[in-house]
Amino acid sequence: MPHFPDEIWLNILEYLSPSDVWTSLHRASKQLERCAEDILTREPLTKFTVGLGFVTSWHRHPGTIAFTFKDLNKHNPEYAFFASCIVYPQHYYDCAMQIWSHHLAQGFPEDKTRGWRVQHGYEGRVVFMALPNLAVVDGEPGVWVNWRELFNAYWGPPPVVYSPRRLLLDASHAESESLNP
User: Fold this and answer.
1) Rounded CA gap, 148 and 113, in Å?
2) Whether pLDDT at 178 is above 90
3) Helices (H) and strands (E) in the chain, counts
4) What is 101-139 written as a DSSP string?
5) In terms of pLDDT, which residue wins out, 3 or 82?
6) Contact 10, 139 (CB under 8 A)
7) Residue 33: how many CB atoms within 10 A of its CB?
8) Comparing 17-26, 46-55, 94-103, which segment has the lowest mean pLDDT?
9) In the chain, which ranges are continuous DSSP H helix?
10) CB atoms < 10 A from the CB of 28, how many?
11) Which residues contact 124 (CB under 8 A, 6 or more apart)?
């Protein structure tokens, strides 16, 4: 790969999709890693929303509490702060804040393993993902997210899910082949 100054790589990377920059070029070299992270933390990171789904207790209507990007942590720049709470549908705002307060008091055990709702841009795909290093802000609604973990989970390869039925079929197929000479 030719060695160009960072400024040229930054100009080139601006024409590529964020997912291509992260998945294809990010690990190609230390220089491209540095340039890719610089590009992605400028604008694409600001388009992410991170949130939770909820269901109202009285009508069982679904809703979402979403947080938009606010800033990078000055002391630990690997973490991005998502605040500016948005509730969908908006008329469930009070209910959503009660649910958020309940989660703050009781913890977020299911959400850390089952998934946070993540979306890139208004028209981006919605992905439910585990973000084990996510930290919930006590007091005002908001979360600290390791942006590398976020990028890997959102743009990385989809997780491999094995079905128990498929494993049984594979095992029975292997046994039948071993019985036939």
Assistant:
1) 18
2) no
3) 7, 7
4) HHHHHH--HHHHHH-EEEEESSSSPEEEE--TT-EEPSS
5) 82
6) no
7) 13
8) 94-103
9) 6-13, 18-20, 30-42, 93-106, 109-114, 147-155, 164-179
10) 11
11) 47
Which is more confidently placed, 105 or 10? Answer: 10
Of the candidates 154, 116, 147, 145, which has an alpha carbon nearest to the alpha carbon of residue 23?
A: 154
Rounded to 10 degrees, what is the CA torsion of 15, 21, 27, 29?
10
Domain locations in the chain?
Answer: 47-155
| Whole-model pTM over 0.85 | no
* β-pair type (62-72, 126-129): unpaired
| CA 118 – CA 94 distance, rounded (Å) | 22
Q: Among residues 35, 27, 11, 44, which one has the least CA distance to residue 120?
A: 44
Q: Which amino acid is residue 90, in one-letter code? A: Q
Residue 105 structure tokens? 């008091």
